[in-house]
Amino acid sequence: MKKTVRAHTNIALIKYWGKKDPKLRLPLMSSLSMTLDKFYTDTSIEAAEQNSFYLNGKKQDFEASKRVFSYLDMLKTKFEIKDNFTISSVNHVPTSAGLASSSSAFAALASAFCAYYNINVDKKDLSRLARMGSGSASRSIYGGFAIWQKGTDDSSFAYALDEKPNMDLHLLAIELNKNKKSVSSTKGMKLAQTSPFFKPWIQRNDFELQEMVQAIKDADFTKLGSLAELNASEMHAINLSAQPPFTYFEPDTIKAIKLVEDLRKQGIECYYTIDAGPNVKVLCQLRNVKDIKERFESCFNNVTIVDASFGPGVSYLD
Ligand code: 2P0
């Protein structure tokens, strides 16, 4: 008897970039995200003699499995379970899309574990458990727009702002660079705290979150896009001004930013957001998807672009 759960990835429009407690993954700020339809992880769990972890059908070595099993150890202790497991995850996150999959991975794993043992948890509890695997996973429990409230202690969890938004919003995931990121999110978030702009970043969080909530309530694409772009720029400015400084940007990242700015000047409204890597996501509305894709394809060689929109929360497959 195994259990399989599907969880979708999410992209933060107001970003989580700073930990108050790295072990519990408590954030220093609240964040807000959009769950994506095109990218998800299916994870199965089954009790077994020994622990093993399969990713996309391939058995992973100790090094590649240890984050999964140390997370399961935490859940086992919490729920007084002694089993070992076979975990099998399939990422439907095209490696070509340049998107991280830890948000969908840990949302699926936490949900599969609780389903397997019939642990009576509501979505808030699930979000809290997913958070301990990867911060952004707390938001992937929900579809549409989700908010992860920073909370004051281990009560930090995400909730749904609007699971079925009636808003014309597309995210074009533009793959510019396939290289693995050089600075992990954990390390990046720690270094970021040495920037003189870190304090203002935290201080602005409440205001930016409220503004984003209002933009969503008003279905105001211009406000949502410009604020998402500003928030992402702030996060990357902090990295550039950390001691020592670092950046996820590559030359093509800057080229893509310039292209988004040019498109806007030409009346094609779009905005960028960038996470802990060099790839760029473009926020736009349906009527401009085709033109934006064509412009990126003509400016970059062999670029892969995935057109995504709102995805659902976790679902139980068997
Ligand atoms: C976010 N990122 O809000 C931010 C924006 C990247 C940039 O959450 O260390 O894998 O597992 O808690 O969630 C990526 O970091 O970090 C991330 P951990 P996570 O989506």
Helix fraction? Answer: 25-40%
Ligand names: ligand 2P0
Question: Low-confidence stretches at least 5 residues in length (pLDDT < 50)?
Answer: none
The shape is globular
What is the CA-atom radius of gyration, in angstroms? 19 Å
State the major sheet: 8 strands, mixed
- What structural category do the secondary elements indicate? alpha+beta
How many helical stretches? 9
Tally of DSSP β-strands:
14
End-to-end Cα distance: 9 Å
Order of helices and strands: EEEEEEHEHHEEEHHHHHEEHEE
Report the average pLDDT across residues: 95
- Oligomeric state of the chains? single chain
Strand content: 25-35%
Q: Can you offer a commentary on this structure?
A:
The chain has 318 residues and is α+β, with helices and mostly antiparallel strands. 37% of the residues lie in helices and 25% in strands. The chain contains nine helices and 14 strands. It has helices at 62-79, 102-116, 123-133, 185-192, 198-203, 205-217, 221-240, 251-265, 289-299; strands at residues 3-14, 19-21, 26-27, 31-48, 52-55, 58-59, 84-92, 145-148, 158-162, 170-175, 271-274, 280-284, 304-308, 315-316. The strands form three sheets. Strands 1, 4, 5, 6, 7, 8, 9 and 14 form an eight-stranded mixed β-sheet that branches. A hairpin with a 2-residue loop joins β5 (52-55) and β6. The longest helix is centred in the last third of the chain and has 20 residues, at 221-240. The chain is globular. The mean pLDDT is 95. Residues 12, 15-17, 25, 31, 102, 134-136, 185-186, 275-276 line the site of ligand 2P0.
How would you briefly describe this protein structure?
The protein is an alpha+beta fold and about 325 residues long. Helix content is about 35%, strand content about 25%.
